[in-house]
Specification:
Length: 87
């Protein structure tokens, strides 16, 4: 299981990786930070980039914060980070 910490920016023009923020991947999300929409968008985006089903990606810490810890089943840390940044 991979564990990644990402920085999220909800309400962006498009959903994408926007480099690094304090050494962590910065994910810009088109979804607004309302009713969990940004969290759901983050899970879908990370699952798609890592090539795993959405059910294998979950937020383990930071549900209401911009800094989120994700657990991704089926990948190790290096593979998940590479897929997210290079995907």
């Amino acid at each position: 299981m991979a564990v990644l910490v990402v920085y999220c920016q909800p309400g962006a023009r498009q959903t994408r990786i926007a480099g690094l923020h304090d050494g962590k991947p910065k994910v810009q999300l088109q979804a607004p930070p309302v009713d969990g929409a940004a969290n759901e968008a983050l899970i879908a985006f990370v699952a798609r980039r890592c090539g795993v089903p959405r059910s294998q990606v979950r937020i383990t810490h930071g549900h209401t914060s911009r800094l989120k810890r994700l657990a991704i089943d089926g990948l190790d840390d290096a593979a998940a980070l590479s897929a997210l940044m290079d995907g």
